[in-house]
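Progress against Task 2.4 (sequence-to-structure conversion) is shown through the following example record, which the project officer requested during the mid-term review.
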Amino acid sequence: MADYVIKRLSQGLLLIVVVSMLVFAMMDMMPGDPVELLTDRKVSEEVKDRMRAQYGLDLPLYQRYIKWVRGALHGDFGTSLRSKLQVSATFKQRLPVTIKLTGTALIIELIIAVPIGLLAAYKKDSFFDRLMMGLSLLFAALPSFWVAVLLILLFGVTLRMLPLSGFTSAKHYILPVTAIVLGGVASTMRMTKAEVIDVLRERYVLTAYAKGLTKRQVLVRHVLRNALILVTIMFFLNIPWVISGAVIIENIFVIPGMGKTLTEAILNQDFPVVQASVLLLSILTVVCNIICDIITAILDPRILISMGGSSK
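Structure tokens generated for the chain above:
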């Protein structure tokens, strides 16, 4: 197990370095000059050159990258070109908002989707199964931004039941979380059902029934535990994607999270904020993949053996 974790950590570290280099290079190739966006036409070239020197934009690309990496290793991602604030200070304010939004959505998604998927598999081909699978197809086909707009028009504009924007009270959670959850519930529900059906066909399930266990004991102790292996994998792999997908939702509902910060930074060519945001997402992706591998190996040691590790 330890050798496998070290191997995955090494691969993840290499991936983070490559992604940071690519993002740094792509931001440098973007058309336009950040200093031109920050200044007026009346500002002299001499002043603009001083600003470029102040932010290190006059240095060659490789020198800027090395300087940025050294700072990032000490938690210093530079200063925002737009707000003049430290990027790390901005993240401390915005990151908890995004974690709260996406964390709530993921927990609600699992609470809803897993029991429904289990019951739909147990009652395969029944009216309940067909109804749930039909709804899941509908929800999966709806883009989250379109759902968000519909929710705003219905509950915010027409019925005036819920606030349209902001993130200061529990009511502000309802619309954005619903927009994120619907698509995720659909895929998790169908995946849970498929896995449970496969597990129900295994011989150890018939053995459990033969031993006199009740249906509830078989479903919870044997079926659900084994079916949750794939669900666990998808849950951890979905975390970075849900956070990335929250970019659109945060902009629609004017939520001051990382998604809105990243969008504004890209539009304003705020290099330090974009680079730090992408680095953070890369680290999150790698960490979630490693946690996913460890948990699945604990749930099913056969997976670890197939990956080339040891169950000891």
